[in-house]
């Protein structure tokens, strides 16, 4: 394998078992079911890593525990852990997470995406860029970036 | 400012739909709203268009009069009218600035300014309309001279910010330019030698009690001796200068921090605008609009500011711009990620 890759040999982890969502205790089909950690995780677990044929879950870039959600205040924070400290793909991964949640969640939601503390050499810079919506908007008008993001997101829509 | 004491309430006058993507910017035409001329404003959007809205004098409501399209190919981030109201400039992520002229109700693109390497994010006309400033992701600020025949000549490219420049704004009376950036700084630029020798004369940053994250917007009070800035650090900051030095033409009169308004907005404050009568409006990613006024109670620490009113859930999504209208009434327009524009009136609670 020609190693132009940032992380040529990533460690793979086992996927979490897919739990069926618990049936609502009240059989009222109009009852609003709050969005929870598990639902958010299900939206993003199958996103493909930008440089490997594995999912973000398999690479443990994201875990269910690293998702904070407050449905009442329409707020989600996803903290992800790049596989290597100097991962130049961190902003792409963050962009994929943001786009997937933008497309999956109701528009009332506010989303923050962060790299896990200590997991990236330029943590503050990556976080600032990922949470500047003007930069995100500009990035999403770049056809090459959009292609890359769409490719990573494809498995997550199955 | 006795009229600002007592209760106020915000009345939603109208909700305007038309843009098919988030609305980024708003600009009221300064030559409208008096002498029977209906109020006009422009809005710009991620849908690559600019829309012109005009008030119907009998209903008091606004209609879309024109859609300026097929010129910009990407997001139009901001727009600004020349002081005479005859020209409208629009800044786009497509790296160009377009200048439009109102010819009998039709808007024609009369000039396209190229030079920025990539996204143009903001623009501002000086008080006399002889200079136009633009800024963008390439970290630079450009100053263009307006020549006869809708020609624009770049007279200076200002380097100094270390990250993208979010907004430029001319001082309301002097030819002194202010810029704010993703590098957390506000820079003051002046032409020291009368020969297009534009220099950075001051940097307001963290060591000057400045912002600790991206500075998104700035606005001046009517006199031009104070300015307010808004930031991703969730604060608004008030700055002041020596008005006598400033009015005597000394562009290098230093600005200093007066007050920090914190603990109000919960998310990034994208926009702030100071009204002629002294009311500061701010719009943020927490979907709320807030109004602040100077606290009249004398204080040994200098002026302080208090919250006059807040409107939670003013929009369904982030608020990107708030702009006071010209004219008699206290009208405010707001633009949002929800694709709508709202017109509000701030009225005394009787």
UniProtKB/TrEMBL annotation, chain A:
InterPro entries: FSCA_dom_sf (IPR034904), MIP18 (IPR039796), MIP18-like (IPR002744). Residues 38-113 form the MIP18 family-like domain. The keyword Transcription does not apply. One of its GO terms (biological process) is chromosome segregation. The keyword Transport does not apply. SUPFAM superfamilies: Fe-S cluster assembly (FSCA) domain-like. Keywords: Chromosome partition. Transmembrane segments: none annotated. Belongs to the MIP18 family. PANTHER family: CYTOSOLIC IRON-SULFUR ASSEMBLY COMPONENT 2B (PTHR12377:SF0), CYTOSOLIC IRON-SULFUR ASSEMBLY COMPONENT 2B-RELATED (PTHR12377). This is Protein AE7.
Automatic annotation (TrEMBL), chain B:
Keywords: Repeat, WD repeat. GO terms for cellular component: cytosolic [4Fe-4S] assembly targeting complex. PANTHER family: CYTOSOLIC IRON-SULFUR PROTEIN ASSEMBLY PROTEIN CIAO1-RELATED, WD40 PROTEIN CIAO1. This is Probable cytosolic iron-sulfur protein assembly protein CIAO1 homolog. The lineage of its organism: Eukaryota, Viridiplantae, Streptophyta, Embryophyta, Tracheophyta. SUPFAM superfamilies: WD40 repeat-like. The keyword Acyltransferase does not apply. InterPro entries: CIAO1/Cia1, WD40/YVTN_repeat-like_dom_sf, WD40_PAC1, WD40_repeat_CS, WD40_repeat_dom_sf, WD40_rpt. Belongs to the WD repeat CIA1 family. It holds the Pfam family WD40. GO terms for biological process: iron-sulfur cluster assembly.
